[in-house]
Amino acid sequence: MKHEKKILDLIDIINDHNYKYYVLDDPIISDGEFDNLFKELEILEKNFPQYKKSHSPTQRIGSSPIKKFNTIEHKEPMLSLSNAMNSNELFDFHNRNKKTLNQKSITYVAEPKLDGLGVTLTYSNGSLLHGATRGDGNNGEDITHNLKTIKSIPLKLRDVGKEIPTYIEIRGEVFIEKKNFLKLNKLQTKNGEQVFANPRNAAAGSLRQLDPKITATRPLSIFCYEAGLIEGELFKDHNSLLKALRIWGLPVSSLIKTVTGHTGLKKYQKDLEKIRNDLPYEIDGTVFKINNYKQREILGYRSRSPKWAIAGKFKAQQATTIIQNIEIQVGRTGALTPVAKLKPVFVSGVTVSNATLHNQDEINRKDIRIGDTVLIERAGDVIPKVIKVILKKRPHGSSTFTIPNICPACKHATSKSKNEAILRCKNLSCPEQIKGRIEHFSSKLALDIDGLGKKITNLLVDHNYLKSISDIFLLDEATLKSLEGFGNKSAENLILAIETSKKISFSKFVYGLGIKNVGEHISKLFEKYFLSDLNNFMNSSFEELESIEGVGPIVAKEVIDFWSQKENQAMVKECIRQGVKIEKKEFVKDQFLTNKTFVFTGTLKTFNRRDGKEIINRYGGSTTNSISKKTDFLIAGVGAGSKLEKAKKLDIKILNEQEFLKFVNLDPNKNL
Ligand code: IVH
């Protein structure tokens, strides 16, 4: 008992020091003293493992590597923000709010827009249940094992006066401070690993590790700024939520301020932009949110963003540098893109050494030449671009640049189609195109072959093991093991991943083929129309394709062009011969939910939102994230809050889970 108490006390003491260090930014002991406390706890836990607690700071790197990321459904969707590009657009935002709310003055909470990765942390009765990425907004990837390694994230909320909700989703941004980013890249270079292009990529790469031991070595930080679903304690405004987050021990930015009116918005925007480069981390703008939750509710949502908030964009950062060379990159569709190789230059915390030049027209328009001094711009995550040439600094004797009309990778002739500015390599066997196609085919939204990323794909194409997509299914362990960088385990894992990928839906397979203009959405339309039958799809005519609702002549032509290439038909047939099995999707004839719109709220117990959505889509209905006059049904789970109130007000039909299942004639005890 004595030892258990000692362990519990030490956990509290260490967690409290962590809180003082990370949240209050006011440590009261030295690092050495902290380490001693930590060691003392480790020894006690080793001697008395029966008293180990899940919220102990020693448990942060506890979990072993995971095999694959599981999906976590967000109980409230993680939305994006619409942008205000300038002061006028901020003005419009404020005026709209004033008008809709019929108010003369409005209070906003002004925050920095952190340039990291949006995550959500779910606490159940105060304990960290799981953490996830944003994903598509409705479902994210389970990265609990990695988030737990971030020392500023409490494993248990501090229970000190402010009531803790039974269930809460907390949104925040994970990022890496500029100085830590530079240190990390130095270390990567030293260890012969690839360096990261910017702090945001470094943070993303760190959170996408299967092994939390690697994540634990990365200097990740977090600031929290919103809540999703809250069960129990409800807040009246955003400031009260932020205050509670701080009390519970979550890091919240100290740059957050309350401002009023358009002048308030403008001033915060200007002040923050001024100090942006002096901040220890990267921000790419501001976020303005209505403080009062009742007002937020009145304003409501667009399909993917709230009307009560806006992101104030900063001007893109610019710098001058020299174009040392122009290289031609070949994409998976054969497109030749000229890329300026720059003398490395530091722009908003990042070293930039490449800029896209788009195409020949762009090069001509700006008269860009090798050796030129140019003004470049980098905005957020966008590839840097050349704004203009500083002609005064042009060296004597320079000459104009013309993209060669042979492919730099395979030396085949290139050509330009009528309405395009882009030159393309038409050789389907061009190694650079093959690399791009295979990378796309194995990507997450297509066959999702874990372990077949850019690096491995390049290696396999360069060694001539992959000449076409279907060659993936001919790979074997022995071949992989003979290659540098492959061990027994990684070879085994890749073969397993390839094997698993063979069972695939029509839409993912077709998306993976990389037909121009055929994205995820169009692939799904084809899946439905051709009833998951590849042969019918391959043999369809232009007229038939064009007749499909949502498919236009451009897409139809691309599909016809794709199948008119014998190699493509042969490649797909070879995939099937090698064991690829297209899973047939059942389409229900009775589309009795056509034109009906559903919204989910609260926690569902018998099925998750993804399944619910699938059922609704199956019968022709659709789902959205927010209640409006156009909503037909609200499916309300446990803990339903503001959406339920709004639905009642608008006289929208409300169904609980069981009522919904009955409505669609499904037995909750059977497989959905
Ligand atoms: S609020 C409904 N606040 O920006 C409001 N987002 O474009 C959703 N972000 O996915 C988010 N700083 O990852 C909010 N202070 C802040 C933010 C912030 C950065 C990111 C976040 C979100 C994206 C939206």
Low-confidence stretches: none
Which structural class matches the secondary elements? alpha+beta
Structural domain count: 6
The CATH superfamily name of the largest domain is DNA ligase/mRNA capping enzyme
Instruction: Indicate the CATH class of the largest domain.
Output: Alpha Beta
Shape by Cα distribution = globular
Report the bound ligands by name, code or SMILES. Answer: 2-(butylsulfanyl)adenosine
Record the strand order, biggest sheet.
Answer: 2-11-10-3-9
CATH topology of the largest domain: D-amino Acid Aminotransferase, Chain A, domain 1
Mean pLDDT: 92
Helix % is 25-40%
Report on the architecture of this protein:
Helix content is 36%, strand content 21%. The protein is of the alpha+beta class and 672 residues long. It folds into six domains: 60 residues, Helix Hairpins; 231 residues, DNA ligase/mRNA capping enzyme (D-amino Acid Aminotransferase, Chain A, domain 1, 2-Layer Sandwich); 98 residues, Nucleic acid-binding proteins (OB fold (Dihydrolipoamide Acetyltransferase, E2P), Beta Barrel), CATH 2.40.50; 71 residues, 5' to 3' exonuclease, C-terminal subdomain (DNA polymerase, domain 1, Orthogonal Bundle), CATH 1.10.150; 79 residues, DNA polymerase, domain 1, CATH 1.10.150; 67 residues, Rossmann fold, CATH 3.40.50.10190. A hairpin with a 6-residue loop joins strand 15 and strand 16. Helix 3 packs antiparallel against helix 9, helix 12 packs across helix 13 and helix 16 packs across helix 17. The longest helix is centred in the N-terminal third of the chain and has 21 residues. The chain is globular, with a radius of gyration of 28 Å. The two termini are 49 Å apart. The mean pLDDT is 92. Bound molecules: 2-(butylsulfanyl)adenosine. The site of 2-(butylsulfanyl)adenosine (IVH) has 15 residues, from strand 3, strand 8 and strand 11.
